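Protein data:
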Amino acid sequence: MTICLLPGLVAGLVVAVVVAVVLAAIGLPPILALAALVVVTVGVMALLWQRSPRAVLRALGARPSNEWEHPRLHNLVDGLCATMGLPGPAIWVVDSPVPNALALGHDPGSASLVVTSGLDRSLTLVELEGVLAHELVHVKRHDTVLAAVAVVSKAPWAVVAGTDRATERVHALVGRGRELSADQRAAAVVRYPPGIASALESMSGAPDRPASWPPGRGRLAALTRWLWIDPMVGAPADEPREGNLDDTRVRAAALSLR
């Protein structure tokens, strides 16, 4: 939990120190400046924790999914949640032809499962089940607790150091190798484990992968790259892939060896 709160703590401290310095400069007693430091730090942390998932959903342009619109998607999620002992997450759709998905939320009871419109259209039933199981594994083991907070807390850093460096900070915060680990755990849940490797191969070989990714506008959307099951969409051709356990093709190959 301490690690999960660290990005919010840093952001809160930065704002709080500025406020405390201003209050001290205008002549308030040091004890009041210190009290302001504590109050503002806690307030910023709470606000960041509470608002981060919704902020990311808005940045991605996600909209709620209706069961009649995506019946296969909702049926698979219901079945997997029953198998995994999870409450049903809110399902959101991002308009994009690229097949992809991510999960957000403070806990399993408030989780949001985000899928692109291209995911349901382009994958087979067993492939789609594998992708959804992968995201529900993130929910089950509380990976989502840190995801949105990491993105929102690194937005100011993106202004200073650039989006690429801030995105790598997000990758480090959420954990390198977390995608391969989720693949492996999901394989133990689905009815046809090879479907996950097949889904990763289908996604990495999709012909209409855009030059820019993630979808949506602004820094928050850009910083979500390492939250998606396929984070390699739009990756620079010269980006090092050796040793990257979150690389979609590396994970597909690893699962094929099981």
About this structure: The two ends are 33 Å apart (CA to CA). DSSP finds twelve helices and four strands in the chain.
